[in-house]
Amino acid sequence: MRIRITDIPPEGRDLDFSLEKDAFNQRLSLTRAEIDESSVQPPEYSFTKSPEVQLNLMLEGSTVVVQGRIAGEYTTPCSRCAEEARKQLEVPISLVLKPHSERNVEGADAEEEDLNFGIYDGEEIDFSDIAEEFLVLALPFTVHRSEERRV
Q1: Strand 117-120 to strand 84-99: parallel, antiparallel, or no bridges (unpaired)?
Q2: Running DSSP on this structure, what letter comes out for residue 87?
Q3: Is the pLDDT of residue 30 over 90?
Q4: pLDDT of 43
Q5: Cα–Cα dist 22/41, whole Å
Q6: I need a labelling partner for 136 at 20 to 30 A (CA). Which of 12, 26, 86, 127 fits?
Q7: Residues 62, 75: Cα–Cα separation, whole Å
Q8: Half-sphere exposure (CA, 13 Å, Cβ side) for 141?
Q9: For residues 13 and 80, what is the distance between their CA atoms, to the nearest angstrom?
């Protein structure tokens, strides 16, 4: 979901959209395949429905403040028994985006490592990419089926 900066009114703008499930699952499997085989492999994840994104965009000068959430349901092998575990994931999104031209060179290193800070170039921002990044970073490395289902 690409939005032009000029399309964010002074009172803000709400965005509600879904990530395309099959395309997102494909990107997850490609990312997993790119990891060096000598490294510990993350588990395989498959989203069962398209993740839903709800964002509120506020414009403060040329800075875009993003607040919201992304939620989805995925399956992955249980770390204990290897049977399929089905889990819900809801991730809060809180992000400040500044234009590249206003980047503070003095504090650039600290800003680049802050997950709640980003830089944008041009007149548009792709909020699908941002939502995907928050979702992927929130996926747990180990997943267990619920305790009541274990025997």
Answers
A1: parallel
A2: E
A3: no
A4: 73
A5: 22
A6: 12
A7: 40
A8: 3
A9: 44
Amino acid at 106: E
Backbone torsions φ then ψ of 115, nearest 5 degrees? -70, -15
pLDDT in tens, 91-135: 999 999 999 876 555 555 545 556 688 989 889 999 999 999 999
- Amino acid, res. 112: E
Contacts of residue 52, defined as CB under 8 A and 6 or more positions apart, other chains included, come to 16, 17, 18, 70, 71, 72
Please tell me the predicted confidence (pLDDT) of residue 128.
95
Q: Do 86 and 144 meet the contact criterion of CB atoms below 8 Å apart?
A: no
Contact 57, 12 (CB under 8 A): yes
Spatial contact of 143 and 85, defined as CB atoms under 8 Å apart: yes
Task: Give the pairing type, strands 84-99 and 63-77.
Answer: antiparallel
Token reading at 48: 């069962």
What DSSP letter does each residue of 6-56 carry, written as one string?
A: GGS-TT-EEEEEE--HHHHHHHHHHHHHHS-TTSPPPPP-EESSPPEEEEE
